[in-house]
Every structure is written in C-alpha cells, then in structure tokens.
Amino acid sequence: MPDRRHKSTPNAHLPTKPCAVCGRSITWRKKWERDWENIRYCSDACRRAGVTDTDAALELAILRLLRELRAADATICPSQAAIAVAGNVPEAWRPLMEPARAAARRLVDKGQIDITQGGRVVDPSTARGPIRLRLRRSAR
Question: At what angle do helices 97-109 and 78-86 cross, to 10 degrees?
Fold first, then answer.
C-alpha cells in the first residue's frame, strides 16, 4: 500500500520575507539571487501602491483599539479599525477591509500583534475567512 501521509510543500526550505505593503510572504526565487536583500514588494501592484497615510492610520487604529481593551487575550475584528478610520460615514469602512487586513499583517511582521482564527495564532499570509487581532503577549 502506498504511503499517503501529507507531504510538506516543496518550497518550505526557501527563505521568505514579508511584502512591505501588503505583508504577505515573498518566497525567494532564483532570479532574485543577487538582489534578494533589495526585494521589498510581492508584486508590481504593491510597488505602485506603497504604504499610504490611510494604511498608517489603520495600523494606529488597530494598536489603539487593542490597547484600550482591558482583558489580556481580548481581540478585535479588522472591521473595527476600518470603521474607526472611516469615521461616521455609513458603509465607507467596507473598502478599507483589505487595507485593514494588510495593516494587521504588517503589524504581525513588526512583532506587535497576532492574527488568530478560532483562538489559535495563524499565518497571516495564508489566513482565509474571518480573523481576529490581539496584542502579542510580549508587546503588552
């Protein structure tokens, strides 16, 4: 009978680093061998977009909301940060949801927060569906 155990991904041994804009993992490629230290973006779209003032405001809103919570393991939804940045304009927060998730991924890279699903810390680059944000225990 053949061995049907789950095999690891073939690129698991390659170095990775986060995109400076969206926070997703960039995996090393042979064509970047000589320039790997200078690679900062996962795509041309991220290179063009850069980190905007709104992105910075979302990061600050996430940290502010989390620090206002009293419980040690209290979490927020990224939508709360989007709502805080959008102000009192109805439905203006919805377009800020993906930028809020990107801001959360950047904060994970900086070691300030964790992204969780079902109470467990998850990889920010591969998390799909609803996520929660909490201060990293060492950042409290």
Answer: 120
User: Could you give the CA distance from residue 33 to residue 41 in angstroms, rounded to a whole number?
Assistant: 15
At 78, give phi and psi (nearest 5°): -55, -25
Q: How far is CA 51 from CA 17, 19, 101, 116, in A?
A: 17, 11, 13, 24
Structural domain boundaries, residue 30:
16-49
pTM of the model as a whole: 0.78
> Does residue 66 share a domain with residue 43?
no
* Structural domain total, the chain: 2
Report the alpha-carbon distance of residue 140 to residue 127 in Å, rounded: 24
Whether residue 22 contacts residue 102, with contact meaning beta carbons closer than 8 Å, is answered with yes
Please give the distance of CA 126 from its chain centroid, rounded to a whole number.
10
User: Is the domain of 45 the same as that of 108?
Assistant: no
Q: For 110-136, what is each residue's pLDDT tens digit? A: 999 999 999 899 988 888 899 999 998
